[in-house]
Amino acid sequence: MHPSQSELLQLKNLGLASVNILHSIGIRTLEDLNRVGPVEAFASIRRRGINVSRVLLYALQGAILDVHWNDLDPDLKASLVSEAEQLISRKDSA
C-alpha cells in the first residue's frame, strides 16, 4: 500500500474505493483534499464520468471535519449539493 493511500484510508468515511477515486483526480493526501475542497473534488470526479452519489460528497466533507458523513448538519449537506450542482453545470456548459 502506498503511504498516501494509507493516510487517506485513516480518514473517517473513506475506504479503498473512495481513495482510489481520489487518486484518479490527483488527491493523494488530506492536505490535497483540504486544498481542493470536497465540492471541487466531487465535481472533478463526476466530470470524469465516474458515477458516484451525493454520499461521497458528504463523506469527503466528513473526512475533512473528522465526523461521520451521516452526522453532518442537513443544511450543510444541502449547501454542499447546491454548490456541487452549480459547479458541475457551469463546467458542463463551458
TrEMBL record:
Pfam families (alphabetical): TfoX_C
Coiled-coil residues: none
InterPro entries reported in the protein's UniProt record: TfoX-like, TfoX_C
Domain TfoX C-terminal: 5-83
Name this protein carries in UniProt: Competence protein TfoX
Organism: Microbulbifer hydrolyticus
Lineage: Bacteria, Pseudomonadati, Pseudomonadota, Gammaproteobacteria, Cellvibrionales
